[in-house]
Amino acid sequence: MRTHLLRWIILIAVVSVFGIGGAGAQQALTWTAGPVGGGWYQMAGGFAELIREKAGVTVKVIPGGGTQNPAIIEKGDADMGFGLPPLLTAATMGEDPYTGTKHASLRALAGNMSLNTFHMYVGADTPYANMAMDEIFKGKKPIRLAVSPSGTSDEWVFRKVLESYGTSYKDMEAAGAKFFRGNYTEQAGMFKDRNVDGTFTFLALPGAAVTEASVGRSLKLLTFSEPLLAYLGKFGLGKGMIPPDTYPKAANAKETVVSATMGSTIVVSAKMPADLVYRLAQAINDNPDRVRQIHGSLKPYEPSQAFLATGLPLHPGAERYYREKGYLK
Question: Which residue among 91, 110, 126, 187 is least enclosed by CB atoms within 10 Å?
């Protein structure tokens, strides 16, 4: 009798500690973010900690990018990740850059968050500091430019920028331009080492990689023209500003720089159980103050607006959460 009772005590203890077979079982998810050193990668780490603490779910963060993340989630190589509304819509419809392949398993958990800003900066010690973007690209100047790897949202938008000026990589290279691909940390290093004249990148304000690039070499941020913004607006990009003193060491630090912006969506697989997605939505949106502390770009985050501007249908688990809260009627 005593032995039988002891066995039951041990079994209960094991179940309590490890959650074997119960609702409290520790779950593990993979989150595809952005390149190492970027805002998405930093934010995903903050969300992972919040989810672990509030929902009891372990989240592993892996590098990714705005363009490749839909495919990574669709294939099942990640359970969730960050995405950009124009690209997410294109992915579900099988349109450029996903022509012919519809990504049917993408659903939104939360959106309308972390407005990120495109940066085009050049060395203040280069001839390009005295040129506008229009002159550089329309004139096919022989600039050496650091850009993000193929498959990232940055690079997708950069190709749209070139299109707006009636040019392309091939045309620019034929005129003497050179393009160097790397993550945000590598971009900053190439700029500081004077291996490039400038960088085109996409980061939440203030971008740590841009701040790093400005240390040891003065940079100038270039303005996005109204015609360029109108062209990018066709793809869902908005108009934004880089406020004065965002980058104190920039040569034009005291100026307001007009740029293009996009918000971010947390994407999950449609295959993820509704109750799990509900718990994730709850962990994030029941703790808005914690979310706003994760990154400067999340300070304006408002849970009541999280179901808007996602670029995707809501996952049923997320929809349930927003309806219960009265946000979604």
Answer: 126
